[in-house]
Amino acid sequence: MWLGCVSKPESSYALWVRRCVRKVIWGAVLAGLPILPSSVTCALHARTDKAQKTDETEKTEKSGRKLIYKEVPVYPAELKSHYIGGIVRLKIGISPRGTVDTVTPIGGNPILTEAAVAAVKKWKYTPAASATTMDVEFTFNPFH
Q1: Integer angstrom CA distances of residue 107 from 4, 62, 82, 91, 139
Q2: Same domain, yes or no, for 71 and 31?
């Protein structure tokens, strides 16, 4: 069963361990057993600050645009309470002024996509000479 928590390339052993842990957690959820404490599940799915900084740097270098204002999507309470999560991918068009003009969903749960689109439309980037496009990915994890 897939939870939608995929990060940058990991070793095959790390992927195997992560998949096993997910199966155990979802098995407990489906059986109606208590879930692991949130601190344990957060540790299983958390990424390090260093990895996040590297990702942001890579995105800035690829697009040439620096993010000035970022709003985090609101996780719909109904989906979170039912442990529904996943990855949402969007293609955004940024105007020369730095505002997000177009947001095109590439994939993901439709309700989670709505939340992500609403947040991304409020983002602001540094001005540039021409319009640019960028792919953005959000991971909604019900265990956080």
Answers
A1: 12, 21, 21, 10, 12
A2: no
First vs last C-alpha separation in the chain: 18
Q: How many other CB atoms are there within 10 angstroms of residue 50's CB atom?
A: 8
DSSP state of 122: T
In this structure, are 97 and 61 located in the same domain? yes
Same domain, 115 and 70: yes
Give yes or no: residues 66 and 13 share one domain: no
Measured in whole angstroms, the distance separating CA 80 from the mean position of its chain's CA atoms is: 14
Q: Extract the residue ranges of the chain whose pLDDT is less than 70.
A: 1-12, 14-17, 20-21, 23-63
Q: Helix (H, G, I), strand (E, B), or coil: what is residue 120?
A: helix
**Helices of type H across 70-130:** 77-81, 110-120
Which residues are within 8 A (CB) of 51 and not within 5 positions of it... i.e. 6 or more apart?
7, 8
Domains: count for the chain: 2
Confidence at residue 14, expressed as pLDDT on a 0 to 100 scale:
66
